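stuck on this one:
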Amino acid sequence: MTLILGEDTLQGALNMAEAIDLIQNAYQHEAAGQTFTAPRQTSLTQKGWMRLMYSADFASGYAAVKAFHLTRGVGVRYVVSLYRLEDGELLAILDGRQLTALRTGAVSGVAARYMAPNGATSIGLLGSGYQSITQLEAMAAVLPLTSVRVFSPTPENRKAFAEHMSEKLGLEVQAVDSAQDAFRHQPVVVVCTNVTGPDPVMQASWLSDPVFVCGAGSTRIESIEIDLDTFRASQLTVMDTAHASEEAGDLHQALEAGFMEPEQVWTLAQLVQRQPERPTAGATVFKSVGSALQDLAVAAGYYERLKTSKPVEKVTGLASLKDSKKRI
């Protein structure tokens, strides 16, 4: 029996705090050598591209495949398929848009638990799009935030974002006139943009000390969000997956330039396993490009929550078994 979990069904089924815990558990499994995540595969289509991502979590007993594709002039569509490892049964097909936004924010929340300075009560946010909503929700879930400053290039967008998130989270979210204004005197800064070019959208000279820098927007090799000087100043740089070193342009550039010693670059699994003391000085950087393990963790959480507690559509005959011993 396969559950069909559309956007309306998923809405509100998991909150951010729950998603953060699910993601952290998955990375604990990775640290214990109990997961496998394949490099993402991208194929060109007539009007865009199709990307496939796969991960298995042997500790939880689940595997997942996410397929998402861009159609130029239309947008991106996401579908996640969740399987049970024991027998290969297709357990659920989930709409992936909300799931992706939730897990992208939750991953940053896990990193902030261990990398944000003690006592951080405010953040600067660069970007006011869909993904920025869950980035801010995640920071508010793990830090005792009282105020936020946000900048994005379109005044109407940043103002609307500030008003919406102020009401939603009960925080003072202020729209400001520049990225520098957003980042000045902030112990935590979050960069979540749709930048596609080689020019960084932030500079190390804007940053406070201590500071945690979270880069969660740029995920392509040709795109640069964080400048080289920020990586150069970082005492610890964490990437959500080892594949990030080849997928994120800013991180790849910094590694190629030799700005960081190997012991200064960890995966998120290593961070979760080692759980270092929060920094009291200097900079730390987290770079997130997303992974199928994150999709898997949240998809499994949705499945466990919804398989019995809410009426959902169920179908038979999907991913039916081909028995090699059976003859017609």
User: Anything to note?
Assistant: The domain at 2-100+292-315 is CATH 3.30.1780.10 (ornithine cyclodeaminase, domain 1). The longest strand covers residues 48-57. The longest helix spans residues 97-115.
